[in-house]
């Protein structure tokens, strides 16, 4: 809470008046708590579970998430600014914990981080290299090893307080994975089908010939190595390559995987019989020590790129991959459940119909399944629109692809089954089964639709560019063009009932209709000094409403729109505000750029800053109940705010 200082020489009466004035203007509440639900669509690269309940997953954009319930839910761990190098986007490539408290992360530019308290605090350790690091392994709290680009091979025997480079008599290519069976015996793999082995704790390494032959004059990449004892081990790599040894790596046998030519990224065995490997959009399982493998059934109707998996025993495991996807299995991989379905794309709208069921629009999913495109031409991968759906208050989300050739901009559900989404080229889609299937509706316009609202299963409106306004009284079977009398984009609309509604848009546009949208009248707004865009509005009853827009604009009405007044705002004038919601005549919330959240407890007269620390632009919000809200936005951000009273 802000503090004010009054000079001690002020007269008592003046002092009393000033204090009363100041405290009247301060909000009588503390800020709430932000929780990143980690539907942020950063690619995930590695997972490690020091116990059956506690696990960590890391990836692009300095993503670190932790579970304490065996992978059912994940919470993001945020790093302090001092742990970053430079201003560029970073990533973590590997994570390892020796118990629930002590663990390490590695990533780009030689970064090594250590925690002693389960990830609450991290220490940046000094590395003798700036090369990108790929994989790490600790046999106990003191002894660990790291591999990385350009043949990087590091070792510590003091828990990472000091790291030293290991020198070999031969040239080393980039190394991708490292695994130790005992304190003395370990293996590392990498480019050029490289396999290295040590028998003295990593002081000396020797090359091992696996017998792999070049493909098109090129030796395939090895990507992952795993052993269950001193004898049995496996390696996976490019082109669906899978190797097995029963004699400690002295000899290797290649195991064919039927019709799989994409790179396998990870392999792990829970014991000598039960193992898993993954790559592309496929997970394989073996129950006979890796002699034969079967493709697993996945709960997916799109195609993520898996990067890693981890099993704590023969039953429980997780698989992770692109766009933040996390799958969990409790039956050894026979069935998988979606724990997190993220997206890299900006989310445009969110709508919760109750405290549990909600949807978000703006996601996109990978629909290319051609391994040649996936591996060699990633920019050519095609995507399609998708819906994010949650049935547990936003704790986890399911991705549901939508067959639409145009970008979708807004969404509105009236219950857990029926909803509408709108977007570019006049797109209007309707679902009656909670978003699984969508039916196109004719809009008779090619303008981009930016907002949609339904009061019930029959009566709805949508608005968009060039003053477009449409209405329906039959659930969207037919849409009627309405005349707004303007040519600027209408960015949001709000109807109180079948007659009274408002619409806002560019150039300070604020319209009101009292006949269900047949006619519209432009409202007089306060002098805002310059022309701007109004982006959102909300009414809690027939009298009280708030409008927000670019450059921190906030105006309110307490008489049903007859008069509008500016409010006192706690934001810089250049912060664009994107969405507003009111729960009653006192409590209001606004979200905007750079993680902005403004809250008012006096009906919107005064606002205080309760922004999140995540810093992503937020574009839409929805109230779950009187104590929780969900906000969505940039790069697939979905965060939940618990409101302090």
Tally the beta strands.
56
In DSSP terms (H or I, runs of 4 or more residues), the helix count works out at 2
Strand content: 35-45%
Average per-residue pLDDT, rounded, comes to 86
Q: What's the end-to-end separation, in Å?
A: 14 Å
Low-pLDDT runs of 5+ residues are 1-30, 368-375
Strand order of the largest sheet: 1-56-55-54
What quaternary form is this?
single chain
Radius of gyration: 28 Å
**Which structural class is indicated by helix and strand composition?**
mainly beta
The backbone outline, from C-alpha atoms, is elongated
Q: What is the helix fraction of residues, given as a range? A: under 10%
Q: What's the story with the biggest beta sheet?
A: 4 strands, antiparallel
Detailed description of the structure:
With 645 residues, the chain is mainly β. It has two helices and 56 strands. Strands 1-56-55-54 form a four-stranded antiparallel sheet, with no helix packed on it. A four-stranded antiparallel sheet has the order 2-3-4-5, with no helix packed on it. The two termini are 14 Å apart.
Keywords, separated by commas or semicolons:
elongated, 2 helices, 4-stranded antiparallel β-sheet, mainly beta, disordered N terminus, 645 residues
Quick structural overview:
This protein is mostly beta strands. The chain has two helices and 56 strands. The protein has a four-stranded antiparallel β-sheet, with no helix packed on it.
List the helices and strands and how they pair.
Layout: H1 12-25, E1 33-36, E2 44-48, E3 55-59, E4 63-67, E5 75-76, E6 92-97, E7 103-107, E8 112-115, E9 123-125, E10 133-138, E11 144-148, E12 153-156, E13 164-165, E14 175-180, E15 186-190, E16 194-198, E17 206-207, E18 222-227, E19 233-237, E20 241-245, E21 253-254, E22 266-269, E23 275-279, E24 282-286, E25 294-295, E26 306-311, E27 317-321, E28 326-329, E29 337-340, E30 349-352, E31 358-366, H2 371-376, E32 383-390, E33 398-401, E34 408-413, E35 419-423, E36 428-431, E37 439-441, E38 449-454, E39 460-464, E40 469-472, E41 480-482, E42 490-495, E43 501-505, E44 509-513, E45 521-522, E46 534-539, E47 545-549, E48 554-557, E49 565-566, E50 577-582, E51 588-592, E52 597-600, E53 608-609, E54 618-623, E55 628-633, E56 638-642
Antiparallel strand pairs: 1-56, 2-3, 3-4, 4-5, 6-7, 7-8, 8-9, 10-11, 11-12, 12-13, 14-15, 15-16, 16-17, 18-19, 19-20, 20-21, 22-23, 23-24, 24-25, 26-27, 27-28, 28-29, 30-31, 31-32, 32-33, 34-35, 35-36, 36-37, 38-39, 39-40, 40-41, 42-43, 43-44, 44-45, 46-47, 47-48, 48-49, 50-51, 51-52, 52-53, ...
């Amino acid at each position: 809470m802000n503090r004010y200082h009054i000079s001690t020489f002020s007269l008592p009466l003046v002092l009393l008046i000033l204090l009363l004035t100041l405290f009247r203007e301060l909000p009588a509440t503390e800020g709430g708590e932000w929780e990143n639900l980690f539907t942020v669509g950063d690619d995930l690269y590695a997972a490690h579970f020091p116990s059956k309940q506690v696990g960590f997953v890391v990836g692009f954009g300095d993503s670190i998430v932790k579970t304490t319930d065996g992978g059912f839910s994940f919470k993001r761990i945020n790093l302090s600014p001092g742990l970053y190098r430079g201003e560029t986007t970073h990533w973590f490539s590997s994570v390892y914990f020796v118990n629930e408290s002590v663990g390490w992360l590695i990533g780009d530019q030689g970064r090594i981080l250590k925690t002693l308290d389960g990830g609450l605090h991290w220490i940046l350790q000094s590395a003798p290299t700036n090369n990108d690091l790929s994989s790490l392994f600790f046999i106990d709290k003191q002894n660990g090893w790291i591999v990385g680009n350009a043949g990087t091979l590091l070792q510590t025997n003091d828990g990472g307080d000091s790291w030293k480079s290991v020198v070999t008599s031969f040239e080393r290519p980039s190394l991708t994975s490292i695994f130790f069976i005992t304190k003395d015996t370990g293996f590392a793999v990498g480019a050029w089908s490289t396999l290295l082995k040590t028998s003295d704790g990593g002081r000396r390494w020797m090359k091992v010939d696996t017998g792999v032959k070049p493909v098109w004059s090129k030796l395939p990449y090895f990507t992952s190595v795993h052993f269950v004892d001193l004898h049995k081990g496996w390696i996976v790599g490019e082109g669906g390559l899978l190797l097995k040894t029963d004699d400690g790596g002295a000899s290797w046998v290649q195991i064919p995987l039927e019709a799989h030519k994409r790179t396998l990224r990870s392999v792990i065995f829970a014991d000598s019989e039960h193992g898993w490997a993954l790559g592309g959009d496929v997970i394989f399982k073996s129950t006979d020590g890796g002699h034969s493998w079967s493709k697993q059934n996945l709960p997916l109707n799109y195609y993520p790129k898996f990067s890693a998996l981890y099993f704590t025993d023969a039953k429980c495991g997780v698989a992770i991959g692109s766009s933040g996807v996390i799958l969990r299995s409790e039956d050894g991989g026979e069935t998988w459940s979606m724990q997190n379905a993220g997206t890299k794309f900006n989310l445009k709208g969110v709508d919760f119909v109750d405290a549990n069921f909600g949807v978000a629009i703006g996601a996109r999913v990978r629909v290319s399944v051609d391994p040649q495109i996936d591996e060699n031409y990633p920019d050519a991968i095609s995507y399609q629109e998708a819906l994010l759906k949650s049935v547990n208050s936003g704790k986890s989300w399911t991705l549901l692809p939508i067959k639409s050739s145009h970008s979708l901009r807004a969404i509105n559900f009236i219950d857990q089954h029926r909803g509408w989404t709108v977007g570019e080229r006049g797109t209007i889609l309707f679902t009656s089964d909670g978003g699984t299937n969508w039916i196109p509706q004719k809009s008779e316009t090619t303008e981009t639709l930016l907002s949609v609202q339904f009061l019930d299963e029959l009566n709805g409106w949508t608005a968009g560019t060039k003053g477009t306004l449409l209405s329906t009284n039959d659930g969207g079977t037919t849409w009627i063009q309405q005349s707004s009398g303007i040519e600027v984009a209408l960015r949001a609309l709000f109807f109180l009932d079948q007659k009274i509604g408002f619409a806002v848009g560019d150039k300070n546009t604020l319209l009101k209709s009292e006949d269900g949208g047949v006619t519209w009248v432009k409202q007089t707004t306060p002098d805002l000094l310059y022309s701007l865009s109004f982006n959102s509005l909300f009414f809690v009853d027939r009298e009280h409403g708030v409008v927000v827009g670019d450059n921190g604009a906030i105006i309110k009405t307490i008489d049903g729109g007859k008069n509008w007044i500016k409010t006192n705002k706690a934001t810089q004038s250049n912060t664009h505000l994107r969405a507003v919601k009111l729960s009653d005549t006192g409590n209001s919330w606004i979200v905007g750029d750079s993680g902005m959240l403004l809250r008012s407890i006096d009906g919107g007269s005064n606002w205080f800053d309760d922004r999140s620390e995540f810093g992503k632009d937020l574009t839409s919000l929805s109230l779950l109940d009187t104590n929780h809200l969900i906000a969505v936005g940039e790069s697939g951000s979905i965060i939940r705010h618990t409101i302090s009273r």
